[in-house]
Design brief:
about 25% helix; globular; alpha/beta; OB fold (Dihydrolipoamide Acetyltransferase, E2P); six-stranded parallel β-sheet; Rossmann fold; five-stranded mixed β-barrel
């Protein structure tokens, strides 16, 4: 349940798109807190705040902030009632929670993209790269742009992790490198809002004019250490959605030589569950062509049962290390960087490279 605290903002620590990090004085001492101004209004030193401190008390890694619920003495005004803002829609996200947000869906009647979305029914063969962790996003993007720097790449964020896209400093750092973000399901805060992964994919193609789309949950995934108890398993359902809409699914395999947990060494059991049990249609599964001998055998053996449905593709890695080192954002997964878990990031990058290889010279954006 919710663990409540109240306090006073002593300082603003830093800001990024959609979020403000604060120092808050409480009876328990100083706390690091995070506010989303679009929900709470813009916080200032001296403001009294109501906090949800559950993630911080429990010591959660990604979500270890106290979260600002409200500035009770200085509530923000209602959004304009003239239908000119993204708040003018009827798409309710984080539904029936105290901080539910009502936003303009990309395909609603009031949306400027209504006409494009009403007629959208196909991805036109667009490559869609699917990953089970948010940390794969910049590495996949680096792989695409290593070979096709002109490609427009969109991100469809599912609701398996953080619901506000604003929580992600990675997305803030990728501003200008992505064509845009579509938040789907209960997730919100993207450049466009969609109710399902299907409409999110169609919006990426027909509104953001993407050549390639990356699908992954936000940061802060939920996992219990069991094969089925992981929010990223839903990427198998996104494979099915991609094929239903006429896209080309590419699985960014979660391969690790740095994770100490046996279930994630080689190919993670989560990738094997998502592609081996949840996905019902074929996807391309790119594998780095020059994995170390021992790791390569682990990967080959783990993927063998999946080859009855999926296509395992060996992809060369030349030039990808340089592309990863040049990433505009820091690469990190579970606290491990590029040198600590090279296999993880190179596996994501080859998925991006494979997507770039599928693009024809005339495939840049839908008509």
């Amino acid at each position: 349940m919710v663990r409540w605290r109240s306090g006073t903002i002593s300082s603003v620590r830093r800001e990024w798109r959609g979020a403000v990090e604060l120092e808050v004085h409480t009876d328990d001492g100083p706390l690091r807190a995070l506010a989303y101004p679009s929900l709470t209004g813009t916080p200032e030193p001296g403001d009294r705040v109501l906090l949800n401190v559950g993630a911080q008390v429990m010591g959660l890694g990604t979500g270890g902030y106290a979260l600002v619920v409200a500035l009770p003495d200085r509530l923000p005004p209602d959004p304009p009632a003239d239908g000119t803002t993204r708040d003018a829609g009827h798409l309710v996200k984080a539904r029936y929670t105290p901080l539910q947000a009502i936003l303009l869906g990309v395909d609603e009647e009031a949306s400027p993209h209504r006409e494009a979305m009403a007629g959208a029914d196909s991805l036109d063969g667009m490559p869609v790269v699917l990953a089970d962790l948010h940390s794969a996003l910049p590495a996949i993007l680096a792989g695409v742009h290593a070979d096709r720097p002109d490609a427009r790449v969109a991100y469809v964020m599912t609701d398996g992790g953080a619901l506000p896209a604003w929580f992600s400093r990675t997305l803030d750092g990728l501003t200008g490198h992505l064509a845009g973000t579509v938040t789907t399901g209960q997730a919100f805060g993207g450049d466009l809002e969609a109710s399902t992964v299907h409409t999110g994919l169609l919006a990426a193609r027909h509104v953001l004019r993407a050549d390639v789309t990356i699908v992954a949950q936000g940061p802060g995934n939920l996992g219990t250490g069991t094969p089925w108890g992981f929010s990223g398993v839903a990427l198998g359902e996104a494979v099915n959605a991609t094929v239903a809409l006429g896209g080309r699914p590419i699985g960014s395999l979660r391969i690790s030589d740095g994770d100490a947990r046996p279930r994630h060494r080689g190919v993670s059991h989560h990738s094997l569950t998502a592609y081996g049990r949840v996905a019902l249609v074929a996807a391309d599964l790119p594998v780095p062509a020059d994995l170390a001998a021992g790791l390569a055998k682990e990967v080959t053996d783990a993927l063998a049962p999946l080859t009855t449905l999926h296509r395992v593709v060996e992809v060369p890695t030349d030039g990808l290390d340089a592309a990863l080192h040049a990433s505009p954002v820091r690469l990190s997964t579970m606290g491990r960087g590029l040198t600590e878990d090279h296999a993880y990031f190179i596996a994501a990058a080859v998925a991006g490279r494979h997507a770039a290889a599928l693009l024809s010279a005339t495939s840049c954006g839908p008509a």
